[in-house]
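[agent] plan:
  1. take the single chain provided in the ticket
  2. run structure prediction with default settings
  3. attach structure tokens to the ticket
  4. add a short note for the reviewer (M.T.)
[agent] executing step 1
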Amino acid sequence: MAKLEKLVIASNNQGKLREINTLLAPLSIEVIPQSDFNAGEIDEPHGTFVENALAKARHACRCSGLPALADDSGICVSALNGSPGVNSARYAGEPKSDERNNLKLIAALKNNSDRRAYYYCVIVLIRHADDPQPIIVDGSWYGEIIDQPRGEGGFGYDPHFFVSEFGKTSAELSAEQKNIISHRGQALTHLVEILRAGKF
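[agent] step 2 finished; step 3 output follows
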């Protein structure tokens, strides 16, 4: 089985790219963003994270001719029946805006005492565009939503996502801490284990 040497990442999100690059670095895999192949972002019309991730991976693979990794992730809020969910990035509509998304989320939770939420991430890795057996891993990270943003790190809903075990929001954690415990960190750690075992 040939060693995986190059991999295209199906994202233009700089925060995601940094996290993925850091966690895959020990494997000496050259990680290339899809923008290097003029591959723009595609629609994410599906109702599940895994379907959206697969669509993104296949698109990046077709554009680059390389194995592709894609993730789909979002925040799921108990009091909102799992919303924003797959619509997290565009919760407040187009163009995408973290600030407007967060404002909408806080408004939706006004006067609601149930602030439980979790980040969810699914990662798909495919060998070629028509790969019938993608590698699929996932991770969940539990916390609660707070009204006032805290911290300068992270992206998305991180300033409002409070992690009680640390007494901090995700945006207040160091990149190293977040990479270990986050939804994406968990999924990537599992993926690294699979790749180390030569199962790709």
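[agent] step 4 note for reviewer: The first strand starts at residue 6 and ends at 9.
[agent] ticket updated
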